[in-house]
Design goal:
mainly alpha; 59% helix; two-stranded antiparallel sheet
Length: 147
């Protein structure tokens, strides 16, 4: 396992996009390398929501007559990458006072008003959208205070 971890770490350090993805809280070596391998080009998706939908992290839509109804999270799409984003969101939420500060009051308010697993999926959705933006613009993640 240590040998494979070392190989993965080296691969993540050698690839430019994987290094950029690792600047996002909750995304480590495994998530970054799998995201680069599976997504290949962020331009395949017109926006972050489309990538998040491809992962199965957004609510399924039912629309008729101009009325849109959001159903439960679809769980369709790339199961392995979705699972890694979920685990990354759990890691961020477990350290709310440090890494969670990046997401500001939004995460604190959501945690206070919603069940734990709903917050995890919402944060995973946000992480996937941020990952798309990092891949698309080829720039490291910056918090609002860093801008």
């Amino acid at each position: 396992i240590k040998i494979q971890d070392t190989k993965l770490k080296q691969l993540a350090e050698q690839h430019e996009l994987a290094k950029l993805l690792k600047t996002v809280p909750g995304i480590g070596d495994l998530t970054a390398t799998l995201c680069v391998a599976d997504v290949s080009a962020a331009s395949n998706f017109s926006n972050g929501r489309n990538m998040s939908a491809w992962l199965g992290l957004v609510p399924r839509q039912y629309s008729t007559g101009g009325r849109t109804k959001l159903l439960g999270v679809s769980k369709r799409g790339n199961k392995h990458l979705r699972t890694l984003f979920i685990h990354g969101a759990r890691a961020v939420l477990s350290r709310l006072e440090t890494t969670g500060k990046v997401f500001g009051q939004w995460l604190v308010d959501l945690r206070a008003s919603k069940p734990f697993n709903v917050v995890i999926v919402a944060l995973a959705n946000k992480l996937a959208r941020i990952a798309w933006a990092v891949l698309y613009h080829r720039q490291a993640f910056k918090t609002a205070s860093q801008s």
